[in-house]
Amino acid sequence: MTSLRHNGSVELTENPRDHYLDAARACILDVGWRRTTLTEVARRAGVSRMTIYRTWGDMQHLLGDLMTREWAGVVAATVAHESTDDPVRERLIGDLVATVRNLRDNELFGRILELDPELLLPYLLDRRGRSQDAILGLVQAQVAAGQADGSIRAGNPVVIARGLLLAAQGFVLSSSTMLGDGVDRHDLDAELATLMTRSLLP
Hints:
By secondary structure, this protein is mainly alpha-helical. It is built from ten helices and two strands.
C-alpha cells in the first residue's frame, strides 16, 4: 500500500478501505480484538475517527470485512500456482489441503484463536460467512467439473462441497488437539488428503 503522510494525514493512492483494514489487522496482531477500537484503527491509519466510523459503524462489521479479505487472500495465494494439467480430483484435494495448512499457519487466524476464539463461533455454529460461501462456490464448481470428467463420484455437488468444507474446518481448528503420540501436522494433512480422496472416488 502506497501512502504519503503530510501534517498527520494520509493521502491514499489505492483503495483506502484496504489501508484501514491493514491498520485494523496490525492492531489485532498487537493487542487482540477486545482491545482494538475504531479510534485506535483511525490513529494507526492516520485518518480521523469519523472517517473510520463512516466506513464501519462498529468493530464487528470491520472484523467481517477483514476476515473476508484475509481468508480470500489465503485461498487466492494457495491456488495461484496450481497446475491445470492435474486431474480435477487431485487438484481439488491438493488445493483444499494446502488451504487448510495455510489458514492454520496464518498469523491473523492464529492470533484470533489464541486471544479471541469466540469471534469464530458464529461462523461455526450459527451462519456461514462470506469467505465460507466463496470457498463453497469454488469447491462446488470443481466437484461438478470432476463429475463431468469422471474423476469424482456422482451426487449433489452442493452437498459434497459442504461435506468437504466441514471436514476441512475440523482440520483447521482442532488439529492441535490431535497432535502427539508420534502424530504431527504433516501426518494429519496426509490423513485429510486420504479422507477426501476416498470420499470423492467414483
